[in-house]
Amino acid sequence: MERTDVPSETNEHESIDDALRAGVALYNDGEHHAAHDAWEDHWLELEKGSDDEQFLHGLIQFTAAIYHARRGNWSGATGLAESATEYLTALPTPYRGVDVDAVRTSLRSLRSDPERIERGRPPALTVDGDVLTARDLDFDVAAVAAAVIAEEYDRYDEAVVDAGIGFAREELGGAQTRYITFVMDFAADAVHRDIIYQRLAEHVERREQRANDVTGLFD
Fold it and tell me: What is the distance between the alpha carbons of residues 86 and 42, in angstroms, rounded to a whole number?
């Protein structure tokens, strides 16, 4: 499948908004534990008590509450729901495009009946009114999600995925989009993710081997 949404030239490091969208998409795709990893590095660097810090802290605890509720840890879920509510209480809605009121409503419901999350689908998160999934992301945000997925699961080598992301960025402006496609599909296609990763790993290995062969000519 040909990809036309290529990465931007200015994305040397992902922004907080890229991380936010990646985490929301992972959450909506059911990756509740992985979602907070997309936010955590940014959260740790923020000034304690700032709106952004409270916002990300609240979302991190919201996803953790959902994660524990899905596993029947009712006390853990309700405790996290209560603290997440405290972090989000003073924020306007929407905040960075997220419907914070909807999150607060979900947290109140979770605190009163944590078993509801086990009985049905968890509430969705929205950005600018859209329920984002990894299929909706542009390359820069999908790359954040792909790196988080690689970190989440031991069966994936983070170095391989990072290399694939780097090679994808080199494709910017060219006719080839092979690595862009691999990275975006790895982030979005949970059903075929293992196969996609295997193909990505094979291409990365071959490319790195070619680079090593050329380097050896001048040793």
Answer: 20
| Tokens found for residue 57 | 């802290």
- pTM, two decimal places: 0.86
Q: How far apart are the C-alpha atoms of 83 and 153, rounded to whole Å? A: 28
**Residue 79: Cβ within 10 Å count:** 16
Q: Please check whether residues 57 and 164 belong to one and the same domain.
A: no
CA-closest candidate to residue 35, choices 4, 60, 9: 60
User: pLDDT tens across 100-146, in order?
Assistant: 999 999 999 898 887 777 677 788 999 999 999 999 999 999 999 99
The number of folded domains in the chain is 2
Whether 124 and 181 map to the same domain: the answer is: no
User: Which residue range forms the structural domain that includes residue 162?
Assistant: 153-216
Instruction: For residue 181, give both structure tokens.
Output: 């496609």
Which residues, listed in sequence order, are joined to residue 95 by a DSSP beta bridge?
A: 98
DSSP string, the chain: -----PPPTT-SS--HHHHHHHHHHHHHTT-HHHHHHHHHHHHHHSPTTSHHHHHHHHHHHHHHHHHHHHTT-HHHHHHHHHHHHHHHTT--SSBTTB-HHHHHHHHHHHHH-THHHHHSPPPPP-BTTB---GGG--HHHHHHHHHHHHHH-TTS-HHHHHHHHHHHHHTTTSS--HHHHHHHHHHH-STTHHHHHHHHHHHHHHHHHHHHHHHHTT-
Above 70 in pLDDT, residue 203? yes
Cα(110)–Cα(101) distance, integer angstroms: 14
